[in-house]
Amino acid sequence: MADKTISSTQSTALVRVGPSRVSSALARNRLGVSSIVFFIVSAAAPLTVIGSGAVLAFANTKTIGIPIAYAVIAVVLALFAVGYVAMSRHITNAGAFYTYVAQGLGRVPGVGASFVAVVAYNAMQIGLYGGFGAVLASHLTTWFSWNVPWWALALGAWLVIAVLGVLRIDFNSRVLAVLLTAECLIMLVFNVVELTNPAGGTITFDSLAPSNLLAAGVGALLVTAVTGFVGFEGGAVYAEESRDPKRTVAQATYIAVAFVGVLYAVSAWALTVGIGPDRIVDAATQQQADLIFNFNGGFLGQWIVDIGRVLIVTSLFAALVSFHNTVARYLFALGREQVLPAGLGSTNRRTGSPYVGSLAQTVLAFLVIIVSVVAGLDPLIDLMYIGTTFGGLGVIILMVLTSISVIGYFSRRTDTGENTWHKFVSPGIAAVLLLVVLWLTLDQYSYLLGLPSGHPAVWILPSSFAVFGIAGIAWGAYLKSRRPATYAAIGLGANSVIGRASQDLPQRTDSSGVIPSVTSPGLAMGPIRHEVFRVGSDHPVGPVSRVLSEAFVEGEIAEWLVPDPEHRRRIYPAYWAMAVEHALGAGEVFAGGELSGVSVWYPAVFGPPNGMPRDLDQRIDVMCGPYAPRFHALHRAMEEAHPAMPHHYLAFVAVLPELQGRGIGTALVQHRLRELDVAAMPAYLEATNRRNLALYVHLGFQPTGSPIPLPDNGPRLYPMWRPASVHRGL
Fold first, then answer.
1. Which run of H or of E encompasses 309?
2. Staple partner for 111: which of 46, 357, 476, 564, CB 3.0–4.6 Å?
3. Of 230, 231, 250, nearest to 239 (Cα)?
4. Which residues form the N-acetyltransferase domain (predicted)?
């Protein structure tokens, strides 16, 4: 039921194309739960964490408590995730931490958090190049006597990642799926060997004793554990590209935390069982990262050890890919909202990737690698160990701020549907626990780095986050005073471009001298225009549903559904609010004419379109009362006639009655059709009257099948199909 008020004219409205605002949207519906889990867990690099991070923690802290530290941090992060994913159900933005702080604590602190996030994630990503190059160089020397410089290998990985960064995100997820599956399988094999060959013939649980957390150096132990989890929060970064952000991000985050927590704790504990809790510290000190391979090689043979060494390299590569994508999306989010240069907010129209942000991160990584070579830095210590530890500290700071932001966000909203545990209790507990971890980390930072307490790096590294945070706050304050339009759009994500649109063209008046304008809460007023933008899932339902309700309240379908006009005006607002609430989460909502026109699309690529809530029938019964049977009949008729082949479904397109005939509806349809043509994807709709058939034919649609009759002598719907790559008339 697409079109009742699309337009009565065939004039073509201007729709901006190319790498401007229209391309300031990431590719939608590319990632499911499993794909996001692959990104999250790959960023954690499990085999590297256990084979290197955990072993070095045994050696450096001289304690056996890393297994219990992993378990405790997993619980802390699970508590943090409760509020974090609750926010993700209401805010869909690639900026994640930055956006949540901006929405919960204010825009100025949000900009400060964004600077911290960009530095922390870049440190994690670029630091891993050192580990990748050094580990692979060591293996090549051992296996083939090839003396290849670490930086040459790092630049080889850099080049591949630069290419992957501008490709489709789902292609990246498939690469990570293969690498991660192999990595986890070898870890499980090692765990079985270690547990079935315990030192002294007895399985012990000494390393899981809580008393290990009371030993000296517990701060170093905890920050090492936290660093191993960094990347778990990445689910929200991919929310705009997921198929159902409100469910996908939550499920992926919980699965990732549980999986990684259990994998780390069990793997680190199994290693202490195989080596012996009384010998693990000495063995780790002597053998370092070779420990896990030397032990398992004695039982499995050299071939399995060599496979494990290869997978250490692929583990680092997978983490590099994952963090590169995270950084690119943070830069994209900040560019889209013009906190950083607007060019960073562009996406490739073919792949949907944030290619400018990706290239910017690629250039920065190249410069750091070159400077490291010139300065003679150690790739394992100076780049990987210090870089990832430094980045992990920044992520802890961001998690503390985000936990507090969750409380601030929900304390100002009473209609979110979240319970007290999600809104206040869990984030509050997480904030306290993370503050303890942060304090211990800062207090024992010299211990963590293995440097004297007076060494300059011990205070320069942590203090740099304060410097970047203050710089971000100062920049946010500048935006507030000098660039109010940009400031007002901070944290709005996909809605930010709508908020700025009204500021970009000169004011114009109609024949009566009045500036025609439409407003939506939190967005600026402005003239009616024909640019089309995607509406983010965190946008208020009311302004969008109002357009549909007012546009569809008159006409044959409306009169057949609810003959009494007074009853119809009572029922329609609630009905369309329900439809829009669902569409913002499961569909694709576009706005035109400064939210005076709306189109709603649903992808039907992997099955029928998810066009209405699961409890639709019950809600219609409550809302529509005696008119419910006809609403049920309408939905059943459309479902039965719906085509089965992959396509995108134009469910609704509507324009406010007083603004119809200006080409806004045409612009809304054309905008999405251009993107579908690039993707070679067909489209389908049901026209609600014969008057608009000619317009749809002009846009490439053709009638398909028989008209859809409605019972009780009701009107007919006209199904129409548009094949892929139809450019005529556009």
1. helix 302-336
2. 476
3. 250
4. 641-725
Instruction: For 109-125, write each residue's pLDDT tens digit.
Output: 999 999 999 999 999 99
Give the pair of three-digit tokens for residue 137. Answer: 């160089």
Q: Domain residues of the chain, as ranges?
A: 33-495, 532-722
Between CA 146 and CA 143 the distance in angstroms is 8
pLDDT bracket for residue 688 (50, 70, 90): confident
591-604 pLDDT, tens per residue? Answer: 887 788 999 999 88
Helix, strand, or coil (residue 714) = coil
Q: 376: left (phi > 0), else alpha (psi -120 to 50), else beta?
A: left
Q: Which amino acid is at 626?
A: P
Helix pair 291-300, 245-275: axis angle to 10 deg = 70
Q: How many residues make up the chain in this entry? A: 730
User: What is the DSSP annotation of 344-363?
Assistant: GG---TTT---HHHHHHHHH
- Report helix, strand or coil for 168: coil
Q: How many CA atoms lie within 13 A of 420 on its CB side?
A: 1
Q: CA 225, 229, 232: angle at the middle one, nearest 5?
A: 160
Tokens of 257: 């935390």
Structure tokens that stand for 709 in this block:
């009759």
Spell out the SS3 assignment of 418-460: CCHHHHHHHHHHHHHHHHHHHHHHHHCHHHHHCCCCCCHHHHH
> 672: closest CA among 1, 25, 210?
25
State the DSSP code for 378.
-
Q: Which fold has domain 532-722?
A: Aminopeptidase (3.40.630)
> What's the CA dihedral at 624, 629, 635, 640 to 10 degrees?
170
Which architecture characterizes domain 33-495 according to CATH? Up-down Bundle (1.20)
Query: Which residues contact residue 618 at a Cβ distance below 8 angstroms, ignoring those fewer than 6 apart?
Result: none
What is the CB neighbour count within 10 angstroms for residue 194?
Answer: 24
Tracing tokens 């399995």 back to the chain, one arrives at 304
Q: What is the pLDDT of residues 252-275, one digit of tens each?
A: 888 989 999 999 999 999 999 999
CA distances (Å), origin 718, targets 105, 602, 722:
50, 18, 13
The type of residue at 276 is G
Please work out, in degrees rounded to the nearest 5, the angle formed at the alpha carbon of residue 404 by the alpha carbons of 402 and 407.
Answer: 110
Q: Can you spell out the DSSP letters for 498-516?
A: HHHHTTSS-----TTS---
Q: Distance between CA atoms of 240 and 355, rounded to whole angstroms?
A: 15
pLDDT tens-place string over residues 529-560 = 457 888 877 788 888 999 999 999 988 899 99
Closest by CA to 720, choosing from 703, 700, 699, is 703
Residue 95 dihedral angles phi and psi, to the nearest 5° = -80, -15
Torsion angle (degrees, nearest 10) of CA 25, 544, 687, 517: -90
Of 352 and 146, the one with more pLDDT: 146
Residue 261 to residue 258: CA distance in whole angstroms: 5
Question: Are the beta carbons of 586 and 29 closer than 8 angstroms?
Answer: no
DSSP letter, residue 530:
-
Q: What is the mean pLDDT of the chain?
A: 83
